[in-house]
Specification:
- By secondary structure, the chain is an alpha/beta fold.
- The protein has two domains: 2-103 and 293-326, NAD(P)-binding Rossmann-like Domain (Rossmann fold); 107-285, Rossmann fold.
- It is built from 13 helices and 13 strands.
- Strands 9-8-7-10-11-12-13 form a seven-stranded parallel sheet, sandwiched between helices.
- Helix 1 (41-47) runs parallel beside helix 2 and helix 4 (107-122) packs across helix 6 (162-171).
- The protein is globular and about 65 Å long.
């Protein structure tokens, strides 16, 4: 653990991007868990005791036990993520603890990653690289590792928030007709030409489906075996949100040939990846890299720090999360 200086005390549960944590040193006694691995639960509960603020990640479960361990002096939990399914918002509200997240700053990087995964899956880049690195003989041939073209292919987006909208904008370069599903249809200006469809209708027409909706009780395993079966034969699925797609059902759809390919950047039980998915040659698997650019991670960390500084100075979080905002 690396000790920073002054008061009030802050806990940072994970090593932040270069230059971010140092912004806390001028005003607060900040303790950083200075590794890239999450804190063990027992260590986290011990370290949070007496803190005025905590910068958490999605691996840190913030529940009644966590809040009781922190004590009455805790004023804010600043999640270093857009998502907040790791935080019991009701328990925080009961104790007067404010919650914040880091929306907006990772939109472009995550949308870029979704497209990187989509291109890798449709053009079988993972298979090709593994082939070359294995030293297996190969030669150009008319039928060698044939992939899919995207031009004109119907794209479906499940979750048309900031990231979904950015994915849709990038689809223009591929002349792909875009449809989406949200709980509510967006105003025409926000949809940017994309068409809202009921979920089952969206699945039926999506030769390519990109999943960007947040994980919640309502969306957990929303794409189960039954719904994956509604996709057109030979469809491609790109999952950017852990838990929305049933990973075992996805592996089974690849195994059966119902799907042409899939790509996953975010796993339900990270760092565990189901062996059934690892066994699929047509699965492109990334270790949660959606926002992993230097600029974006610095912006995320900076926003988390901004939220802490604002609350400890007596103000409101810059990007607050409440039960009301979470339900939108």
């Amino acid at each position: 653990m690396t000790q920073l200086s002054s008061l009030p005390p802050v806990l940072v549960t994970r090593r932040l991007a270069p230059g971010v944590a140092e912004r806390l040193t001028a005003h607060h006694a900040a303790t950083c868990h200075d590794t890239d691995l999450p804190m063990a639960r027992g260590d986290l509960l011990a370290a949070v005791r007496g803190r005025s603020a905590v910068i958490t990640t999605l691996d840190d479960v913030v529940d009644g036990e966590f809040l009781d361990a922190a004590g009455p002096g805790l004023r804010i939990v600043a999640n270093h993520a857009v998502g907040h399914h790791n935080i019991d918002l009701a328990a925080c509200a009961e104790r007067g603890v404010q919650v914040s997240n880091t929306p907006g700053v990772l939109t472009a990087a995550t949308a870029d990653m979704a497209w990187a995964l989509l291109l890798a899956a449709t053009r079988r880049l993972g298979e090709g690289e593994r082939w070359l690195r294995s030293g297996r003989p190969w030669a150009w041939a008319p039928n060698f590792l044939l992939g899919l073209e995207l031009a004109g292919t119907p794209l479906g987006i499940l979750g048309m928030g900031r990231i979904g909208q950015a994915v849709a904008r990038r689809a223009r370069a591929f002349d792909m007709p875009v449809a989406y599903h949200n709980r509510r249809e967006l105003p025409p200006g926000e949809a940017d030409g994309a068409t809202w469809l009921p979920l089952d209708d969206l699945l039926a027409r999506s030769a390519v489906l990109v999943v960007t909706c947040p994980l919640s009780a309502a969306t957990r395993h929303l794409l189960d075996a039954r719904r994956l079966d509604r996709l057109p034969p030979g469809a491609v699925v790109v999952s950017m949100t852990a838990g929305v797609v049933d990973e075992l059902a996805l592996a089974a759809a690849l195994e059966s040939g119902a799907l042409f390919a899939a790509a996953v950047d975010n796993f339900e039980r990270e760092p565990e990846v189901p062996s059934a998915l690892l066994a699929q040659e047509r699965a492109v698997l990334a270790p949660h890299l959606g926002s992993a650019t230097v600029r974006t991670r610095q912006a995320m960390g900076g926003l988390a720090v901004d939220n802490v500084l604002a609350v400890l100075a007596g103000g409101a979080p810059v990007t607050p999360v409440t039960a009301v905002t979470a339900a939108r």
